[in-house]
Amino acid sequence: MSDASYRDAIFSTPLDKVARFSFDERVVACFPDMIRRSVPGYGQILAMLGPLARRHLRHGGLVLDLGCSLGASGLALASQLPADAFRYLGIDLSPAMVERARHTLSEEYPDHDMRVEQGDLRQREYPPADMIVVNFTLQFLDPGERDQVLGQAFDALSPGGVLVLSEKIVASDEQDNAWLVERYHDFKRANGYSDMEISQKRTALENVLIPDSLDAHHQRLARVGFPRSLTWFQYLNFASMIAFKEPV
Is-contact 13 110, C-beta < 8 A? Predict the structure, then answer.
């Protein structure tokens, strides 16, 4: 990634009042470092998109990335697939994310057909797609709006297509969930975050990031029309699922 990327130090100093987390210019500037140090298994999830596309995406098909942030899914696909193997469309609400993603994708892979558009996933139609990626996006939507977004994704997905859904999760058992959260904080400490940073970011994300359980995710996928879904990856309280739409 040729764009300047900085170390995440947003919550490294004491704050009298912690503001709600938002994907603003400060977050965009350090986002690659933030997500690398904050999301267990993020690299593995991205690395698997290429093999999943080879298996399930028709040649030249459209990959729709909902909540694309800096276009990491597009970059991962382009690093593994030739330019004629797929088309990519990322959609994100944050103008700062969209601007950086456009620049990075065009600079890194100018021969690939990759576009990024700014927009609200809840208020726009999705084009027909053969593979849809929703990586760590639903958790930032109001729980009452999540069925709508996934329902729109199901309708846009071609028969035989797949949807990859990655999310922070909560365990159904309270004791198990507490253990996972504690180990997640250990993961962040091991990646250089202080207890103050962990605490202040947790406060900033309160009522902004609202996770579901794995069961709730699979039930929602079934409710919007997917006949089959499975969890293919989990690292602590972060997981990725794949849902299959039946062929004609």
Answer: no
